[in-house]
Amino acid sequence: MIRPLIAAVLLALPTPLLAQALSPAEVGAIDRLVTKALTDTGVPSASIAVVRGKQIVLTKAYGKQSETMRVADPEAPYQIASISKQFTAAAILLLEDQGKLSLDDHVARYVPGITGGDTITIRQLLSHTSGLQDYWPQDYSFKAMATRVTPQQIVDRWAKKPLDFAPGTQWQYSNTGYVVAGMIVEKVSGMPLLTFLQQRVFAPLGMTAMDQDLAIGPRYPAGYGRYALGPVRVEKPAARGWLYAAGELSMSAGDLAKWDVARLTRSVLPADDWQAQETPVTLTDGTTNGYGLGVSTGTRGGHRFVEHSGEAVGFLSENIVFPDDGTAIVVLTNSWFSDAFMRIARGIEAVVLPADHADTTDAAALARARVVYDQLRQGTLNRALLTEDANYYFTPTALGDYRASLSMLGDPTDFRQTGTTRLRGGFVNRTYRVTYPDRTLAVSTYALPGATGAFEQFLVAPTQ
């Protein structure tokens, strides 16, 4: 009697609930790819979490987390660095919900003395369009990072320089902008940023998060570095204060996955706050690179994603959410000398995402791109496949050069899309790689939206 009853209950469940758990084969595949990535690169450890069906289905750690933590603990907090930016942005959005500020307020209202502060908006801080110079573009600890710093000292040194561009006209990653945003949160809320987040985000979600400056010592994962192909060594942490609101959090992969579940279920924050964070910000010329408020957005392989990576001294991390699939992947590593964190994330992505979720629009665009490419190398361009601007670009001289230089290469051995599909300036941007026996070419295209959208741009260039 028990088995028929169980079967009846299972049949009554929604299909996603039946399919959410990882199979032993999937877990085995993940174990192998993580282990191989660590072995190949020398990265000491990785901690991962997988969300499927909007539920956490796997948390696991591998390798050596420090010289005193040689058995990996999945509960250990890694420094997540710039993944923290989405939490700072969430704090701003929550304060806007309370009517205490507006994303379109100028920063001079809250933090005086900043260059352009009377024209830079809070929204521009969060979207990296403020023009404030980034104080840490390097992938190493520069000299000043050996000395403790305060947010105001960062502002005084970097946010009072001339702007790199007029606010809203360009996109340029700026940790400085997020330091200013954190100062605004503290001024408006009347409490430290981490206290505000603990009350409004971490406690409600059951997350354990801490200041990365305090996650140092024998009980915490150590960051590792390497000079070229030399020995893997423990890195000296930066002095306190350097990441602040731009990247100050440490947490386990499982705790970060709880935040991803909240994103998928639209909990903790109002739904319109999640949407605001995930909406790409548009520059004054109408273009966008897909970055919203503390997160990047785009589509890869037919799967829409919301993503951010992070880099701290000795740590690299990746957090990517696939909203339409109810899936998320967290990868935290304790090194900053290898792409193992992205290699692992992409590998897990291939394991856990539906294999039949191909992007038919991208596939159709690939076929059309190949048609145009072949026409260019044969000198038989069908101008109906192009927009007015693209037709203007392809002058007789341009067509002659394309035909002469491409026809001599013969037939390509491979033609495929590379990178992600993105919107920009009202067009869909895709790039392709064309392979020949002795060389590789890159094709950059912009097209009108839709499977049959005309090409606004079709440029071919050498890559090697």
Percent in strands: 15-25%
CATH class of the largest domain: Alpha Beta
Number of strands: 15
Major sheet strand order: 2-1-11-10-9-8
What class, by secondary structure content?
Answer: alpha+beta
Low-pLDDT residue intervals, each spanning 5 or more residues: 1-19
In the CATH hierarchy, what is the superfamily of the largest domain? DD-peptidase/beta-lactamase superfamily
Rg calc? 24 Å
The helix-strand sequence is: HHHEEEHHHHHEEEHEHHEEEEHHHHEEEE
Q: How does the overall form come out from the CA principal axes?
A: globular
Short description:
The chain is built from 15 helices and 15 strands.
What brief labels describe this structure?
single chain, 464 residues, alpha+beta, 2 domains, 6-stranded antiparallel sheet, 15 helices, 15 strands, 35% helix, globular
